[in-house]
Amino acid sequence: MALQSLRQAARFCGDNQGSGCTVPDEALAERFAAFAAAGLLDVPDPRLAADQFIALTFGVALDRLGSANAAEDTRVRPLIVEGVRTFLRAYRTM
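Above: the chain's sequence. Below: its structure in token form.
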């Protein structure tokens, strides 16, 4: 559910560039804050959580492979999936 909402936020920003859409890390922080308010994640600092999410997913893919484009490189998706799993373990509600 959380990943689906993140995809929707990213798709919205991509479709609405130039229309006041926030940059992706700010959009992630806003969604993480909303997830925290709904009791789905324990996120004391949404902006830090967004930075960590990006580092654990796209950052790892970029560092290892030089690309985070899962459409062009099948090695990217497993790295991003594991980053999401790590993030959710760190920020899950108890």
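The helical segments are 2-15, 24-37, 46-65, 76-91.
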